[in-house]
Design brief:
Structural class: alpha/beta
CATH class: Alpha Beta
Largest sheet: 9 strands, mixed
Number of strands: 11
Shape: globular
CATH topology: Alkaline Phosphatase, subunit A
Oligomer: single chain
Number of domains: 1
């Protein structure tokens, strides 16, 4: 296990929608007003982050029948992109609108930044947040790695404004879905997220562990998002992103270009927040898929 590493907080270049652009201004909330009037207001949003596969490796693949069934019953973003490589900075971008100076997959010091992020925005607004991390040894554990668990896929531990008691093991994912936080992230371990194991293994894991929530969401004003951190390094960082729930038009798709900052912007607006973290402030809501 590598020693924890503190990354410098140097300013970054503001990002647009193109996936190759660098990250936005560090640790600032945007003054750009939210445009959530065209979005639904779900009671619960669950975001599942998978690993290292390009759009064409999942969508239309016979190795991923369940994820393709979600696409058929929900929505597909046909031009969805990661921000950079390797994995860890993409997680920070998706969670906080900035890579926070992280450039590699080395374990970072717990709470090394106090920058605004999705969790801090939710908690500051009196809304609930939680993460569910497969393989995490115990609730709030700040270990860098344990078995197939890797903290590099759990960016919330890098923020001192996110209470560690909101960082759960996946075994704590509630069976009563009405008890879920307003917004939560689910991070499978290094096998089940397709990082170390096959597409079929990850596809089956999502089905076995989240299909019951997906079907519940269809009739309980809730939403499931499945996305990826980055592609396989061969496809321009184009990643699969699927949305499924009561207010998603079945079989819909959007060909507009979106990246992790747009997804964060959309999650903030779906939750009814009045702030946007980092480069999320200059990003766009996902549109064209809501019924």
């Amino acid at each position: 296990m590598s020693s924890p590493k503190v990354h410098s907080h140097r300013p970054l270049v503001a990002a647009g929608c193109a996936a190759a652009l660098a990250t936005g201004a560090l640790g600032l909330w945007s003054s750009v007003p939210a445009h959530a009037d065209t979005l639904p207001s779900p009671d619960h949003v669950v975001v599942v982050v998978m690993e290292n596969h390009a759009y064409g490796q999942i969508l239309g693949s016979s190795d991923a029948p369940y994820l393709n069934s979600l696409a058929s019953g929900g929505a597909t973003l046909t031009q969805s992109y990661g921000i950079t490589h390797p994995s860890q900075p993409n997680y920070y971008a998706l969670f906080s609108g900035d890579t926070q100076g992280v450039t590699d997959d080395s374990c970072v010091d717990t709470g090394f930044t106090s920058a605004p992020n999705l969790a801090s925005e939710l908690l500051n607004s009196g809304k609930s947040w939680g993460s569910y991390n497969e393989g995490l040894p115990s609730q709030g554990s700040t270990t860098c790695s344990s078995g197939d668990y890797a903290q590099k896929h759990a960016p919330w531990f890098g923020f001192d404004n996110v209470p560690t008691n909101t960082e759960h093991t996946f075994n704590q994912f509630p069976s009563d879905f009405s008890q879920l936080p307003k917004v939560s992230f689910v991070v499978p371990d290094l096998c089940d997220d397709m990082h170390d194991c096959s597409v079929g293994t990850g596809d089956s894991w999502v089905k076995d562990n989240l299909d019951s929530y997906a079907q519940w969401a269809k009739s309980h004003n809730s939403l499931l998002v499945v996305t990826y951190d980055e592609d396989d390094l061969n496809s321009g960082n184009q990643i699969p992103t699927l949305l499924y729930g009561q207010h998603v038009a079945p079989g819909s798709s959007s060909s507009s270009s979106y990246n992790h900052y747009d997804m964060l912007h959309t999650l903030e607006d779906l939750a009814g927040l009045n702030t946007h973290a980092g480069a999320s402030g200059g990003a766009s809501d996902i549109t064209g898929i809501w019924n």
